[in-house]
Automatic annotation (TrEMBL):
Residues 135-267 form the Peptidase C51 domain. The keyword Membrane does not apply. Keywords: Signal. Residues 1-30 form the signal peptide. Pfam families: CHAP, Inhibitor_I36. This is Peptidase C51 domain-containing protein. The keyword Signal applies. It comes from Actinomadura verrucosospora.
Length: 268
């Protein structure tokens, strides 16, 4: 299978595949990534029609990497074994219990194609050999809990920005994050601009672990996305929204221009 380079910017378009899964006996269940497509896993195939080497996953992955030995690679026997998964897959089998969305860009951006639970099929002409990330949807996510450490990190104590800064520092791989990290982050409504200045990915695609930004409500608001649904809505954890200067959660909010929703997603 030839390796095709990306040459065009492609507008996002979801194409759902809902082919039913036909049971052929008692299934195996997900273990370590071993090149076998077990129950509970989302699997890429190097060739069309579920042929060639397999790369199996149990979680969402925002960036597969592009070089060995650090990239996610095809592990199963057959054509393509040992090659990096990014921009090299032709078909999939979704053996999870959730919809899985394959994206053209890393960090869950660009054109995408959805595969329902149990579906198998070929990537469409946009995504074939142009797969850069995938996201497990339908309510998969993290259990909400108030783990805020009380360190304001240069923001107003017990405000949304202080809580979001804690989550960035503790869960998103930026332990030194603060109001002065690479730039001045300021009020919540300016976080999308600050993120662009320092090269953090900014788009309108919710994913677990993204920081949601509202830049239309007064001085703005930020929250941590902990669950995403197949209809595009998502759940958030936050401070100082429904509960003044305190922790709270909301379910099934959206990306929209509404005052109570969010306009941008930051992917650290």
């Amino acid at each position: 299978m030839p390796h095709l380079k990306k040459s065009l910017t492609v507008a996002g378009a979801a194409l759902a595949l809902t082919a039913p899964l036909v049971a052929t006996g008692s299934p195996a269940y997900a273990a370590a990534r071993d090149g076998a497509c077990d129950g509970g896993e989302f699997c890429y195939y190097y060739n069309s029609n579920e042929a060639g080497s397999i790369s199996d996953f149990t979680t969402s992955i925002g960036d597969y990497g592009t070089t060995q030995p650090s990239c996610y690679d095809f592990k199963g026997a057959g054509s393509g074994k040992g090659l990096c998964v990014k921009n090299n897959a032709a078909s999939v089998w979704n053996r999870t219990s959730h919809t899985v969305r394959v994206y053209y860009n890393s960090n869950y951006g660009g054109a995408h194609q959805d595969f329902a639970a149990g579906a198998k099929g070929n990537l469409n002409s946009t995504l074939k050999n142009n797969n850069a990330s995938h996201q497990i949807l339908d309510g998969s996510g993290q259990t909400p809990r108030n783990d805020y450490d009380g360190n304001a990190r240069g923001f107003a104590q017990n405000n949304c920005t202080a809580f979001a800064a804690w989550r960035i520092a503790s869960r998103l791989g930026v332990p030194s994050f603060s109001n002065s990290w690479k730039t001045t982050w300021g009020n919540a409504g300016t976080w999308d601009d600050a993120a662009r200045r320092v090269g953090v990915t900014v788009n309108k695609t919710p994913s677990v672990g993204a920081i949601a930004v509202n830049d239309v409500h007064k001085v703005g608001h930020v929250a941590y996305v902990n669950r995403v649904y197949s209809d595009g809505s998502f759940d958030v954890e936050e401070y100082n929204w429904n509960n003044p200067l305190a922790y709270g959660t909301r379910s099934h909010v959206h990306v929209s221009d509404a005052q109570a929703d969010f306009q941008w997603m930051l992917h650290f």
